Structure formats: C-alpha cells, structure tokens
C-alpha cells in the first residue's frame, strides 16, 4: 500500500531560435515526461494542447499528442538564426510516490528535435501524410531535464539547448503542482476501494483515516506532536507554499494588466495557515503531547483536499493567464533563472583586479604555484558551500555542481574610471528577431583543425550576444603544418575578402578575433597585414595559445610527440613554436612575432590558460615569465618577448583567465593534458563561463 501524489505539469513553450542548422525543412520539438518507481519508467500523460492564437509564417501544421508524447507545431525553418514565437501550452499529469519516509521523487523530461525534409509540392494530401506518419521525422537533437522536488511546487524557466547535428535554443517554462493524493496497493492498477470515496453531501473526498493513518504513522495509536509536525511539513506546508508561490507569481506578472483576473485575488490564502503552523512550532511545549492517529491523519488530509480543490478551480485561470500574459511570466522566470546561474558562476570565479600604467610590468609572475595551491584548497571548501540549481535544469548540458570548473581571473586595466562592477545582464536572453550589427568575430582553429572545431564556440557566442556576426575561418584547413607566416597571410586575405563582400559603404563597426591554440598565433601573424582595419579592432581572446612558444613545455610526452612530427613529418609550424627554426633564439619566428604590430589596437584582450593543459606551457599562454624560467639566462629572450608583446598593448582591459577543470577519475588524456587542451573549445559550461567573464567585450 502506498500514497501517490497526482502531479499536474503545465508546459509553456515561449519561443525558439535555430542558431545553426544543416538542412532547411520541417522541425518539431517533442516532449515526454516521466518518473521512476523502482527503476521503472512511469510515463506522464499529455492531455490538453492550447495552440497559439498569434499567426506565424513558420507554422505548417498544429501540434498533437501521440500516446505519451507531445509534439509542438511543425515549423518550416530555412535560415540560420531564425527566431519563432511559439506560445504553445500543453498539460501533463502523472503520479509519484509521496510516502513520508520516501525522498521526493524527481520528474524527468526528454526533449527531442525532429526534422523532416519539406517537398516543394505542399498539397494538403502530402501535408496530411507527413503529419500522420511519425516515422517520417528523424531525431536531430536531444535534451534531458530534471524537475526537482515536484511535491514542493515548481515554477521555473528552462532554456533547452539542442546541440547535436543542429543547434536550437528553446525557451520553456514549467509550472508543476500537486493536484491530489491517492492511496493504492503496490500494484498501481489495483486501487483500493473504500479509501477514497465521494461524499455526495458536500462533494468532498473522505478517507478511511484509520487505514491511511497506518500508512503514515505505522504501529502507533497516539502520535507525538513532533512526528505530526514533521509529516505536516512534508505533506501540507510544502504543498501550501507551492500553491502560494504560484498565486503570488500570477499576481506579480499581471499587476500591470487590466484588472480582468479577479479570480486570482479571490482564491483562498493559505499563507495565514502557514503562519499559524510556524507559530505552533515555536510555541510547542518541551514535553510534547500526543494526538490520536485518526485525528492527526484527518487534519493533514482535510487540508490537502482543500488545496487540491482550490488548485483544480485555479488551473483554468492559470491557463488563461498564460495564453494572454505568458510573456510576462516568461520574463519574470527568466530573470530568476539568470540570477541563479550568475550566482553559481560567481562562486566558481575568483577575481584579482588592479590598475596599471603599463601592462609590461606584469610579465613576471608566480601565478602558477598560487593557482595550483588555491585550486586544491577551494575544491574542498566549495563542496561545502554549494549553490542550488533552478527548479528544472538540462542535465545533459549542465554538469553536477561539484563538477563546475573554477576560473582564476587576473584583471588589469588602464582606465582609472573602471570599477569592479558586475553586469546585471543574464546569460540567457529573450529570443527576438535577430538583427545582425556591424561587429564581426572571426574564430580561428588550431593545429590540424577545421572550421567545424569552432562551431560549438560559435553557437555559444551567439547565445551570449545574438547580434554578433560570427565567422569560423576556413582558409587554414589542412594547411597548419607549414609556415605560420603563410597562415597569417591566408587568414588576412580571408578576413579582407569577407569584409569587402559583406560590409560595403564602411558599415563595419568592429572586427574581433578568438583563436584556439595555434589559431591565436596565426591571428597575430595576420595583424600586420590588416592595417586598414586597425581602427576597427575590438577584442582578442586566445584559448591556450603559446604566445611565448613551447620552449618551456613541462610534458615529456608532448615534447616527444612534437619532436616526432618535427623530425619525420617536417612540421614547420611546430618547429617555429618550439623556437628551433634558428640556432639563435633572437632570430626565430616567434621572437620576431613579438615585435610585430597589431595588438596595440585592440580595445580588450583576454589570455585564457589552464594549469592542467600540458600541450602548451602555462606562462606562455598568459604572456608571463615564472620565477624558475626567469632565473635561467638562456630564457632571457622569453622575457624580452613577453615585454615586447605587453609594452605596446593599449587595450582598456587585459584579462588573464586560468581554467581549472574538475575531472573525475583518471585517463591518459587527462594525464598528458589533452583533456584540458580540448576542453577549451569542447566544454560548453567552460565556454559559457569564459564568455560570461568577457561579456563586456561584446558591448
């Protein structure tokens, strides 16, 4: 025998954006919600779809329910960055375990992106065949979400990022509330008659308090007040609080609208009962009296039935409000979500800040030992002070809170007016029609990479600022084994041609660069050839780029690999990075590059590094010289290179960001530093945190 809570879930799909698509055609967002009982999946039942009343050119046919799956309207998507306002609502209901001694059962949601090619002939017959043939659509993306503690009530915004073959951003809000309680045998299909009956006189549900009391307070005829209060808090107080939170949300989101929803105000106020309950807790005597089990059970479930009846009356009003004012609810919950995420990121980022007249005074540093010590200390401290996630989160995008990377941010500025104020702008922005401005960002891949390597970074950057034009450089594909000078010329030519073709009449406002590994060095090699664009340069971000070469590499395995490639494959670019292209370090390519012009015209610069990345020397990626290297005379040219690079920089802000991954377990990739090196462009949360740290660059 068990107690089950019937849960009502209202899913509101506000909008979506096709950030990156491989093929134009029909796209559908598909949802399935379920719970787990003894590892068995219990599917929720979608039963009501409320389509949008607003016309949209993208909609081909309306959404539908197929067994336990809700499918949104089919949308015809043709281009990158298309934004669609859906405003569709679907109701689900399900049951979860609600015994006092059991933990709150979470709910789980699977969201899939479906795709089907759309024929030129769009006759009604063909459209009907596509709509009815479920096998016609292919799954092109999948997201997994967890709805935490639904018994407490959940009103939360959840961005869904479908990032497999395509990259779609879907904005949804979930409203989750306990609808009623039921009492069943171990077999969910065999409901025990007599426990719940309809009383014809007052149309209320009565329960057999003796039988149900034995479930809640087993083996006792008298119940201690403390035990009663514990169960009351688990069942009644949390459900009442969930209802009150939803009611207050409705009042806040409709406060500026005409007073046409009087039903909200007229709904019962359970906050007074909660206040009374908390007062009872404070005034309870030391020697706790007892209550008869039947009386305690009756008190608890009579209040639960009051809440259930109230919510059933309130549900139509909620649906009506979401139809007419859903955007207000969405914006309110979006802000709550961003506040929570910003708090999590803030607890994983550690800042130092100072003003300087010249950046060249920062090339001598011992950040390596400092960050190594801090990271080991902070990991233990952080796990004791974890933040909490929002009420619902995409679990195949966000890691557990213990796995979030740490960022150590050393910030220097030449602006005396700058303060360490943090931007209030959130990570996720409301989806609106995209109007690309005059700011281009070129992404440059690394050694033996391709433009596709930077696709994930491009998409994440489009979330941070949708008005940027982000271009993944392609002219270097399969050409990174040769001379870096030639790579710089190829990149400069690609940039010049793109600007000439897309920005006529001097409409270009800014041009910025993000380079990964060797890509950061190639960008610097291209700058002397982009003199006509110097006044347009915005920001430069390099990810694990060895600006001082790889002479100080600390990994024997990596050194051996570079030696093999240099010796037998004649890989000139690696020879140049290791500064072995000339017997005199002062005549090497990397030393000469340190004197090349271009960096001084950027407004903001960020050097991103990781101590766990053994592919490139830590100080080299930060343009610093550590204490060990500075003591050796043979490394004096490295100090000169760092000085040459930094002394000419006139940017307002210089950030050095050290990313510390929280890897679990051991692997060869982690041991040799490859995991951290690849993580710079492969870990979506790290990318988001780095871009969020640099978000002032994009303004």
Automatic annotation (TrEMBL):
Protein name: DUF676 domain-containing protein
Pfam families per record: DUF676 (PF05057)
Domain DUF676: 436-621
PANTHER family named in the record: DUF676 DOMAIN-CONTAINING PROTEIN (PTHR12482:SF5), LIPASE ROG1-RELATED-RELATED (PTHR12482)
């Amino acid at each position: 025998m068990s107690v089950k809570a019937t849960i009502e879930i209202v899913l509101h799909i506000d909008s979506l954006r096709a950030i990156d698509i491989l093929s134009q055609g029909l796209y559908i967002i598909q949802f399935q919600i379920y719970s787990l009982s003894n590892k068995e999946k219990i599917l929720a039942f979608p039963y009501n779809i409320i389509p949008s009343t607003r016309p949209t050119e993208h909609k081909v046919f309306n959404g539908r329910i197929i067994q336990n799956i809700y499918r949104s309207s089919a949308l015809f998507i043709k281009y990158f960055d298309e934004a669609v306002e859906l405003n569709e609502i679907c109701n689900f209901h399900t049951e979860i375990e609600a015994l006092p001694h059991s933990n709150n059962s979470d709910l789980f949601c699977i969201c899939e992106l479906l795709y089907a090619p759309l024929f030129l002939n769009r006759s009604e017959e063909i459209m009907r065949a596509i709509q009815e043939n479920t096998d016609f659509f292919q799954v092109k993306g999948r997201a997994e979400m967890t709805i935490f503690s639904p018994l407490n009530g959940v009103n939360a915004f959840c961005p869904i990022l479908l990032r497999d073959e395509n990259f779609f951003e879907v904005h949804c809000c979930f409203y989750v509330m306990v609808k009623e309680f039921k009492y069943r045998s171990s077999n969910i299909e065999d409901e025990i008659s007599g426990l719940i009956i309809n009383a014809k006189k007052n149309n209320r549900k009565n329960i057999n308090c003796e039988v149900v009391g034995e479930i809640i307070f087993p083996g006792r005829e008298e119940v201690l007040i403390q035990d009663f209060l514990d169960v009351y808090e688990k069942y009644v107080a949390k459900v009442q609080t969930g209802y009150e939170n939803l009611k207050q949300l409705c009042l806040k989101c409709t406060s500026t609208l005409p007073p046409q929803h009087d039903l909200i105000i007229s709904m019962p106020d359970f906050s007074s009962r909660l206040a009374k309950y908390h007062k009872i807790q404070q005034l309870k005597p030391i020697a706790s009296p007892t209550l008869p089990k039947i009386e305690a059970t009756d008190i608890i479930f009579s209040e639960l039935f009051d809440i259930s009846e109230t919510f059933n009356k309130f549900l139509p009003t909620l649906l009506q409000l979401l139809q007419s004012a859903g955007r207000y609810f969405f914006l309110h919950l979006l802000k709550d979500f961003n506040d929570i995420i910003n708090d999590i990121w803030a607890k994983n980022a550690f800042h130092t800040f100072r003003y300087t007249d010249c950046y060249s005074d920062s090339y001598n540093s011992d950040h390596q030992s400092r960050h190594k010590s801090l990271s080991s200390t902070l990991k233990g401290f952080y796990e004791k002070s974890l933040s909490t996630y929002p009420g619902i989160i995409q679990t195949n995008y966000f890691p557990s809170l213990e796995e979030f990377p740490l960022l150590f941010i050393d910030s220097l500025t030449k602006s005396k007016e700058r303060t360490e104020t943090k931007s209030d702008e959130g990570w996720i922005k409301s989806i609106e029609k995209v109007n690309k401005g005059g700011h281009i960002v070129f992404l440059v891949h690394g050694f033996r990479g391709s433009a596709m390597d930077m696709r994930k970074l491009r998409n994440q950057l489009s979330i941070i600022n949708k008005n940027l034009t982000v271009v993944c450089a392609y002219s270097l594909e399969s050409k990174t084994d040769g001379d870096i000078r030639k790579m710089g010329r190829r990149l400069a030519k690609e940039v010049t041609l793109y600007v000439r073709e897309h920005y006529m009449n001097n409409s270009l406002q800014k041009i910025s660069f993000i380079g990964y590994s060797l890509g950061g060095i190639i960008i610097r090699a291209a700058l002397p050839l982009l003199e006509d664009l110097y006044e347009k340069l915005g920001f430069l971000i390099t990810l694990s780029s060895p600006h001082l070469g790889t002479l100080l590499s600390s990994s024997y395995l990596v050194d051996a690999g570079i030696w093999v490639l240099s010796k037998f494959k004649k890989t000139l670019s690696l020879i140049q990075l290791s500064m072995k292209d000339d017997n005199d370090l002062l005549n090497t390519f990397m030393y000469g590059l340190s004197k090349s012009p271009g960096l001084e015209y950027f407004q903001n610069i960020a050097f991103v590094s990781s101590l766990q990345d053994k592919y490139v020397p830590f100080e080299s990626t930060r343009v610093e010289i550590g204490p060990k290297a500075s003591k050796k005379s043979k490394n004096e040219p490295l100090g000169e290179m760092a000085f040459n690079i930094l002394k000419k920089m006139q940017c307002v802000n210089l950030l050095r960001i050290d990313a510390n991954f929280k890897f679990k377990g051991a692997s060869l990739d982690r041991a040799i530093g490859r995991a951290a090196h690849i993580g710079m462009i492969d870990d979506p949360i790290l990318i988001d945190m780095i871009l969020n740290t640099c978000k002032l660059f994009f303004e």
